[in-house]
Design goal:
Low-confidence stretches: none
CATH topology of the largest domain: BirA Bifunctional Protein, domain 2
Number of helices: 13
Strand order of the largest sheet: 6-9-10-15-14-13-12-11
CATH class of the largest domain: Alpha Beta
Order of helices and strands: HEEEEEHHEEHEHEEHHHEHHEEEHHEH
Radius of gyration: 26 Å
Structural class: alpha+beta
Number of domains: 2
CATH superfamily of the largest domain: Bira Bifunctional Protein, Domain 2
Mean pLDDT: 95
Strand content: 15-25%
Bound molecules: 4-amino-1,4-dioxobutan-2-aminium adenosine-5'-monophosphate
Largest sheet: 8 strands, mixed
Helix content: 25-40%
Shape: elongated
């Protein structure tokens, strides 16, 4: 169907005075004695295009005035009184009628209500803006890494090893459990892969394989976590950006993470001006200033042990007690970034016991070279580390955790054959979108959220 994107109608002055064809959904209509006006949106921009109907002509327009109706409009593009453009309609074709029970009425709906209709909510201004910002951010992430010699690799989604070791893997199976099997081993050997398999929680282990050949790689794809966390920042299926860098130590990883986050935010601020104004007006007053401020300063860096001291001396009443060795909860992460540093902050060198097996062991014997990036309003958006590159140390740690070394033989081989200092991080893509848009629930920054007890 030949037509012009409404975004281009607004940006390309050459169309003024021309006869053009546009398509879209009717967002609002006004009907006066002699004229009718339709605001049309096709999803290419937040702005609606005004269609002007002169009732003295023989244009058929009545069926087009129902909210949600999809239309094709032909007419002359002219400048309006406010320096924008509108179409003087010559023909209006109803592509799809929309009856009165259309759930998206003119009033502003709550995000909770919109969650009940993921198939329609994209037609609201909020989701129109979220999805476009999301798309620009994805492009920016690729651009950032491609410009810096990182190779984009696609790691497997079905895996036999649990990267984070937290027991949060969804199982992949073609047979249901049956009493006929004597034990788990027999059951799994009968299954599709001949052993237990699951959906990957992270592409890191395979990402390391690629980085040990290509030097610098990144993955960008879904990760799956069967976490029973019904919170505003957890999804069972989220998009994960995971760079892995050879010949790098913890400070290099931190530098890369800061530089990438700043690049993505700068790109969104420059490319999505309308959308960001919308979020600033409707979701978080001062959002644009906050982001400008964030990217114009160096992020903070704070040792975990120091963070614990700051929390203990804060005088704050936290729901979860704070002591050396505890994992930081969202309330602690937010306190550190919002109250103490008042900006994004990297927390480093966490206790070994609360982090994954693969992290580089620090000389103190108690901590590992881990790093989390905490941002005001959201908490953790990035988790990463330098990796343990020493074969004996890594095996020792895995054995002490009771891990089955046979499942990780490829991974261990990397430490046998030309091992190098290396590391990387994982960015929760939706968490960064929340931070950039001010949208406070992760369910509202993805087309179809998957959360515990909810799939559609
Ligand atoms: O801290 P995590 O668990 O680290 C890893 O998976 C490492 N293998 C990454 C690496 O070093 N390559 O997860 C990384 C990030 C978190 O900081 C968070 O932003 C996001 O992934 N994340 C989630 N986002 C949404 N829903 C969930 N359930 C998430 N779990 C982690």
């Amino acid at each position: 169907m030949k037509h012009i994107d409404i975004k281009n109608i607004f940006t390309d002055k050459n169309y003024i005075g021309q006869n053009v064809t546009v398509c879209g959904w009717m967002r609002t209509a006004r009907n006066s004695k002699t004229m009718a006006f339709i605001a049309l949106n096709d999803g290419t921009t937040l702005n609606h295009l005004q269609i002007v109907i002169d009732k003295s002509t023989d244009i058929e327009y009545e069926d087009a005035l129902h909210l949600g109706t999809s239309l094709k409009v032909v007419g002359k593009l002219v400048e309006d009184q406010h320096g924008s453009v509108e179409i003087n309609a010559e023909e209006i074709i109803v592509l799809g009628e929309c009856p009165a029970e259309y759930p998206l009425q003119k009033k502003r709906h709550t995000l909770e209500f919109l969650r009940t209709m993921p198939h329609l909510r994209g037609r609201t201004n909020t989701f129109n803006a979220v999805l476009r910002v999301r798309s620009v951010m994805a492009e920016a992430i690729h651009q950032y890494f491609q410009d810096r010699n990182f190779v984009y690799v696609n790691t497997p989604l079905i895996t036999g090893s649990d990267c984070e070791g937290a027991g949060e893997m969804f199982q992949v199976t073609t047979i249901g459990y049956s009493n006929e099997y004597k034990n788990e081993e027999e059951y799994y050997s009968d299954d599709f892969f001949g052993r237990r398999a699951g959906l990957s929680v992270s592409g890191q282990l395979e990402g390391e394989v690629a980085a040990m050949a290509m030097g610098k790689i990144y993955t960008f794809g879904p990760s799956f976590r069967a976490e029973n966390s019904n919170t505003p920042k957890h999804l069972a299926e989220f998009w994960h950006v995971e760079p892995e860098i050879a010949f790098a130590e913890l400070p290099d990883i931190i530098e890369e993470a800061e530089s990438m986050v700043k690049y993505v935010i700068r790109t969104v601020l420059d490319t999505c001006k309308e959308e960001m104004k919308f979020f600033d007006a409707h979701f978080e007053k001062g959002l644009i200033d906050r982001l400008e401020e964030l990217i114009s300063h160096e992020f903070g860096v704070c040792d975990y042990t120091e963070a614990i001291r700051l929390l203990q001396e804060s005088g704050e009443k936290f729901q979860y007690p704070v002591e050396w060795g505890c994992d930081l909860q969202t309330e602690h992460e937010r306190y550190i970034s919002e109250k103490v540093f008042k900006k994004a902050v990297f927390v480093t060198n966490y206790p070994k016991a609360i982090k994954s097996f693969y992290m580089k062991q620090n000389p103190d014997g108690k901590t590992v070279a881990a790093v989390d990036l905490l941002v005001p309003g959201v908490g953790e958006i990035i988790g990463g580390s330098e990796r343990e590159a020493n074969y004996d140390k890594l095996v020792g740690e895995m054995e002490s955790r009771g891990m089955n070394l046979d499942l990780y033989s490829d991974y261990l081989d990397l430490r046998k054959f030309g091992s190098v200092p290396h590391g990387g991080f994982g960015l929760g893509f939706e968490r960064l979108i929340m931070y950039v848009t001010g949208v406070s629930n992760i369910r509202d920054v993805i087309l179809y959220p998957r959360t515990v007890g909810s799939i559609r």
